Amino acid sequence: MTSTRTTGGPGIRARRIAVAAFAVIAAVGGVSALSGFHLPLREIDPQGPDVASEVVSAEIIGIRTFTAPAGLDVHADLEYGTREDGTLLTLDVCAPAAEALVTARPAVVSIHGGSWARGDKANADWRNVCLWLASEGFVAASVNYRLVPDVRFPAAIEDVALAVDWLRAAEQVERFGIDPARIGAFGGSAGGNLAALLGTTGDGPLDEGSRVAAVAELSGPVGLTAIELDADDATPWLRGIVADYLDCEPGAKLEACPQAADASPATHIDPGDPPFFIGHAELEVVPIGQSQRFASALAAAGVPVEFAIVPGGEHSIGILDAALRARVAAFLHAHLG
Predict the structure, then answer these.
(1) Which range is least confidently modeled, 52-61, 83-92, 192-201, 312-321?
(2) What letter would DSSP give residue 86?
């Protein structure tokens, strides 16, 4: 495995210092100069527990049972955008070895979980997801996105949508040998919600803008309205993280929290949506009713959907063992090539 860091690290810090210096000069220059003021750039840089995987067990389970083969390339901390508040957005690209690149490979955007408030693209578990996808022949882009409490919905989905746009741009298409018509999304937990939103929001062809051609998501909390959480007898923990993400009172009715419907992928389903793979454990922390209703709604709209129920209580990529990896890979190959 080769790791390259063509942007980020010291380069980002140098730019941040330069921008800060420019801001000082602009302030000294008077009112006219202030009209060109920009906030200093800042990275999403989780520390301590915030960088950890949403798989809390120390056991070798799920994606941890994958061992990456030699020859995969990792391009770390590539910049895919900057937000108005100065947040610098980065992702890691994991790709098949350069000598194995073909003219146009399918790509998959990989979206970490963590209650929309924690997690990181490069923690050990999500780096393993990125490498696993690359080992399957996909160009994988593992993304960081803005987190609660710094932002609330819809900031995270806006960020991951921008990552799809970036991946589809001509520069990345040429650099990584991507087929821009064959981009999918994979996510777990809160990242599963975001992957599902990528699949169900937007209009038009699935090979343009931030649209994706296939979605695989695990353990996603995809129904965030009070009605759906009540139907699941959701725990105070789940209600609390949803309320924080939406910036609503826990249990608020739809009229008091309309963004709950906007943030729920089922709200946006239509027959033009891409095929879905949904995986969920029977007894895990996110109630299985979330995925059951979502799968039923997709099927009712005529959207191809494969629903895998896994025994036990592991969560998100904690259920992504060899058997489930084979099913997800087969699904992605069937719909992305």
Answers:
(1) 52-61
(2) -
Half-sphere exposure of 43 (CA within 13 A, CB side): 22
Q: Helices 155-168 and 190-200, interaxial angle, to 10°?
A: 60
d(CA 55, CA 57): 6
C-alpha to C-alpha distance for 303 and 42, rounded to whole angstroms: 40
**255-305 tens-digit pLDDT:** 999 999 999 999 999 999 999 999 999 999 999 999 999 999 999 999 999
CA distance 300 to 303: 7
Distances in Å between the Cα of 126 and the Cα atoms of 225, 262, 311 are 28, 27, 22
Four-CA torsion 27, 31, 35, 41, nearest 10 degrees: 10
Angle at 242 between CA 237 and CA 246, to 5 degrees: 150
Q: Which residues of 27-58 are buried (b: 16+ CB within 10 A; e: fewer)?
A: eeeeeeeeeeeeeebbbbebeeeebbbbbeee
- CB count within 10 Å of CB 232 equals 18
Cα 159 to the chain's mean position, in Å?
9
**The pLDDT of residue 5 is above 90:** no
Q: How many CA atoms lie within 13 A of 24 on its CB side?
A: 5
User: Which of 8, 149, 125 minimizes the C-alpha distance to 63?
Assistant: 125
The overall average pLDDT reported for the chain is 88
Predicted confidence at residue 243, as pLDDT, reads: 96
Residue 232: DSSP 8-state: T
